[in-house]
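Troubleshooting: if your tokenizer reports a length mismatch, compare your output against this known-good record of 89 residues.
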Amino acid sequence: MKAKKTKADDLTGKTADELHALLLDQRKAQMNLRFQRSGGQLEKTHEMRTVRRTIARIKTLLQSQRAKAPSASAKSQTKKAAKPKTKAA
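Known-good structure output:
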């Protein structure tokens, strides 16, 4: 399995759903590489680094998308006051 190097420019045009799907694929690839490494079958060790960095790029873009467009429910949750806890008798 060859890990394709993904640039941040390639990811910026994708929607959150596409990024989540890509993240899932990359995590599966990372798991497969871990199994190969533990079994002594991994020849291209640089693929571990490539996949790990691609996952970080995807997570960063997902986080920046969340920060740009906060949902209405997140705003309403921050305005709610915390209820005081009562002791059970």
